[in-house]
Structure formats: structure tokens, C-alpha cells
Amino acid sequence: MSGAAVEIDGVSKTYDGRVRALRDVSLRLGPGDFAALTGPSGSGKSTLLNLIGSLDSPDAGTIVVDGQRVDRLAHPHRFRLEVIGFVFQFHHLLPMLTARENVEVPLIAAGLPSGERHERADELLGEVGLAARASHLPSQLSGGERQRVAVARALANRPRLLLADEPTGALDSVAGERILDLLGRLREAYGMTMVVVSYDPGIGERAERMLRLEDGRIVEDA
Ligand SMILES: Nc1ncnc2c1ncn2[C@@H]1O[C@H](COP(=O)(O)OP(=O)(O)OP(=O)(O)O)[C@@H](O)[C@H]1O
Ligand SMILES: [Mg+2]
Questions:
Q1: How far, in Å, is the centroid of ligand 1 from the Cα of 21?
Q2: What is the pTM of this model?
Q3: Residue 16 CA: which ligand 1 atom is closest?
């Protein structure tokens, strides 16, 4: 299995006809690339991730992931399930489900038998340091613990493209390093492509590319 390539050409996105969230953004990521995305609040980082992940569509320009135009997918849900792992800025865990069950959601959708689901969910919860919290509801977890459950859930289907919006934002430096290490290991093992919004100082040592957005434009690509 290898990572998915991402090709973005001349993408613009405006909200409510006024807010120009992205202006003519072009970007190419090869399979297995690891790009860190930074920039001030409101510069368009989450918007860009949402567009790449087919959760929203651009007003102009094209986005091709793994050879497919993401705004013209016949089965966007299936595409997301098979190709993409998403860690949302606001983790979006299901409040009625335990940590383990939240991690299992994409595995249920993928049709994995329950024994394997539990096993993989517990393995991932162990990796993010939450083995002892598997039966807790989100309301019984701290903010950082919820964020780690969201990371485990995004990785459950072994995505070929991981889109993570501040996956270490609510974590102390040790827990944050641990998540970045986990992502680095999985990337080496599976070759997944990663775009990670992060201000974590540790991201600079790990990412191959540092992208900076300002006012809807990529102003730095190092
Ligand atoms: N659904 C929406 N409707 C209207 N405006 C929006 C919507 N989503 C985002 N915006 C606006 O688009 C711009 C870019 O927002 P975006 O969420 O991409 O920023 P960001 O870089 O992720 O910021 P932060 O670091 O605060 O998360 C902002 O000015 C925001 O107010
Ligand atoms: Mg954001």
C-alpha cells in the first residue's frame, strides 16, 4: 500500500460571497510526503484541508487526490472511507459512544468483523496512550484525551492520506511528541501522505515541507 498523491491547481474558495478563504492556491504532494501547514488564525488552513478531503468544494480550480477529482466523486463517502483519515480541529467524537466505539466507527463502515474491530481499536488506543480509557465516553475524557481518540479514529482504516487539523493542539509537549512519533512511524510503515496543521515545534524536525498560508495564499513552501 502506498500514499495518495495530491494535486491542487488554482483553487479559490469564498464564503458568503465575501470572505475569500483561499486565493488561487496550487500545491503538489507526492505519495508519502509529509507537509506541515501553518499560518495565522483565519488564513485558510482548515478550509484547505476540508477541500482536499472532499468535505467541501472549491469555487474555482481543481483538486485531484489519488488520481481522482475530489469535487466530482460519484461516491464521496466511499472515497473518504477508503483513502482519507481526518483529524478535525474540533474532534467531533460521537458523545454516546465510548472511546473504543468511536475508533471503531470507520471500521464498521468498512465491514470489518467485530473481533478484528475491537482488536484494532484497542491497539490504536494503546498507541495513543489510552489503553485504560477505552470504555470511557467522550464526556468522561479530558480535552487532550479526546483529541487522541480522534487521532486513533482517523488512523483506524489505515488511510493513504491523513489530513490532521492541529492534532496536538490540546496536548502537553510529551503527549504531542508521542502523537507526532506515532504518525511518523505509521507513515514509514504504510507510506501514507500527511498534511498536518500544527504549531508544535517538533513538527519542523519531522515534516519534509513547511507550508505557510497567509490570507488565503501559500506564502512559503520550504
Ligand atoms: N463556513 C464558513 N462560512 C463563512 N466563513 C467561513 C466558514 N469557514 C471559514 N470561514 C472563514 O474563512 C476564513 C478561513 O477560515 P479557516 O477556518 O480555513 O481558517 P484557519 O486558518 O483554519 O484558522 P484557525 O487557525 O483559527 O483554525 C476565515 O476568515 C473564516 O472566518
Ligand atoms: Mg482551522
A1: 6
A2: 0.93
A3: 4
